[in-house]
Design brief:
It is built from eight helices and eight strands; from the N terminus they run βαβαβαβαβαβαβαβα. The protein is α/β, with parallel strands linked by helices. The longest helix has 21 residues.
């Protein structure tokens, strides 16, 4: 495990309806106050892809970003990665020119539609890309992913998706800028998420992606009956459970990887660093 590099990105949702922290952010100042807490990166989203949430327009997404994110961009710490969680191409194209030079920018695109994203990546050499597995037929359907669940084993299907993506990004000369994300919870049943989590280490060792994102923080398949992610005591339990699962998965890896842990409460993962011997 000592060969891996671990990074932790905090999660901030400027939404009223995200499953765990919807409505928590009311001012841009709250985000700046989190800079010290989220020391390596922040993944920020203005639209919830919770299956129970309603899709919003491009205009509404821009309005939220203009209110909460744009005003603080001049003050964004250069050592803090900015990950933009949106499936809308137009939103990324609008926001990128407003982000000061020197900030590492990542597009967290949960749509799973990589062909449409390639041209934007080629035009913007500073931009890194999170390639997500999501079975939706169109980019605009990204938030309705649970309408496109296919029963049966999932791990091989996810692996096949990444094999195709790997070839595509290699041919485009972009593979080094791509972070692979199995996208737990997106278009997958509880049983499929559990299967995928257990099969993830061997999949990672077989593919060429050097960087992976593990986003299981407070996801429904981590929860037991009656656990509410909006309850403070339950959040502590879920965060600890996440850390335990991550440590077990790290033990199964044999290759060398950079792993980004997407977490609502990064401090809950301190024991992962302590016990795995990974680099920060």
């Amino acid at each position: 495990m000592s060969s891996h590099q671990l990074k932790v990105w905090g999660v901030i949702n400027i939404t009223p309806d995200s499953f765990s922290d919807g409505g928590d952010i009311q001012t841009a100042q709250q985000i700046t106050q989190s800079f010290k807490r989220f020391q390596q990166g922040i993944d920020i989203g203005a639209e919830s892809t919770n299956p129970k949430a309603h899709p919003i327009s491009e205009l509404e997404e821009r309005e939220r970003l203009a209110k909460f994110l744009v005003p603080i961009l001049p003050h964004w710490p250069r050592e803090l990665t900015l990950s933009l969680d949106t499936y809308k191409l137009a939103t990324i194209e609008w926001l990128l020119p407003q982000i000061p030079a020197g900030i590492e920018v990542v597009w967290n695109d949960v749509s799973g539609h990589i062909i449409e994203a390639t041209e934007l990546l080629q035009k913007n050499p500073r931009l890194k890309y999170i390639c997500c597995h999501n079975p939706v037929p169109t980019r605009n359907a990204s938030g309705q992913h649970m309408n496109y669940v296919s029963e049966g084993p999932i791990t091989q299907r996810v692996k096949d998706f990444f094999l195709l993506a790997q070839v595509h990004f290699e041919r485009a000369g972009l593979l080094e800028r791509v972070i692979a994300d199995p996208c737990f919870g997106f278009g997958k049943t509880r049983e499929q998420n559990l299967e995928l989590w257990h099969g993830l280490p061997s999949m990672m060792d077989e593919l060429k992606f050097k960087s992976w994102l593990w986003g299981i923080s407070r996801k429904s398949f981590l929860r037991q009956a009656g656990e509410d992610p909006r309850d403070a005591a339950t959040r502590i339990v879920l965060d600890q459970r996440q850390a335990e699962w991550i440590l077990k998965a790290l033990e199964k890896l044999t290759g060398v990887h950079t792993i980004i842990l997407r977490a609502h409460e990064p401090v809950s993962l301190k024991d992962v660093w302590k016990n795995c011997g990974c680099e920060k």
